[in-house]
Amino acid sequence: MPQISMTVNGRAVSGEVEGRTLLSTFLRDHLSLTGTHVGCDTGQCGACVVHVDGVAVKSCNMLAAEASGSSVGTIEGQAAADGTLNALQQAFQDHHGLQCGFCTPGMVMSAAALLKDNPRPSEAEVRAHLEGNLCRCTGYHNIVKAVLAASGQDVSGIAAE
C-alpha cells in the first residue's frame, strides 16, 4: 500500500492507504475529520468539497494519493483555533443558511473559494458558483444571502423568493 503525506488544516499528516482510497475517505476514516460529508459518492452533491492547494474540489472524486504532497483545507480548518467561527461561517448562522446541516460544510467550502477569487460577488455569481452543491432543505435563498453578507454586502434589501 502506498504511503501518502500532506498538510491538512496546517498540520502535517501521513498514512498508508490503498490506491483506490478516496480523499474523502482518508479525511474521514484515517484522520477522523468527519466534517467533510459524503452524500452521493459521484461528485454531484458537493457535500464533500475541500480545498486542495487552494482550489475547491469534490473529495469523493479525488484519490487520496492524488493529494499527496498537497495542502488540504477542510471545514474543520475554517474556524479559529479557539472555535470562533470565521466571517462566512458566522454569516451562515446569522442568516439561517443551514437547516439539517448536511450540505453546509460543502457549501461553506465552495463559498470560501468563491470569496477568495471574487471578494464581492453579485447574487447571480453566488448562485452560479454554488450550482454544484445540492441542498434539500433551504431553497438556497438564505445560503446566497449568507455568502453576500460575508462579503460585506448589505443584504437587507434582498427579498425572499
From TrEMBL:
Keywords: 2Fe-2S, Iron, Iron-sulfur, Metal-binding, Oxidoreductase
PROSITE patterns referenced in this protein's UniProt entry, alphabetically: 2FE2S_FER_1 (PS00197), 2FE2S_FER_2 (PS51085)
InterPro entries from the UniProt entry: 2Fe-2S-bd (IPR002888), 2Fe-2S-bd_dom_sf (IPR036884), 2Fe-2S_ferredoxin-like_sf (IPR036010), 2Fe-2S_ferredoxin-type (IPR001041), 2Fe2S_fd_BS (IPR006058), Beta-grasp_dom_sf (IPR012675), Diverse_Oxidoreductases (IPR051452)
A Pfam family per the record: Fer2_2
Location of the 2Fe-2S ferredoxin-type domain: 2-78
Keyword rRNA-binding: no
Annotated GO MF terms: 2 iron, 2 sulfur cluster binding; metal ion binding; oxidoreductase activity
Listed PANTHER family: OXIDOREDUCTASE WITH IRON-SULFUR SUBUNIT (PTHR44379)
Name the UniProt record assigns to this protein: Carbon-monoxide dehydrogenase small subunit
Native species: Ruegeria marina
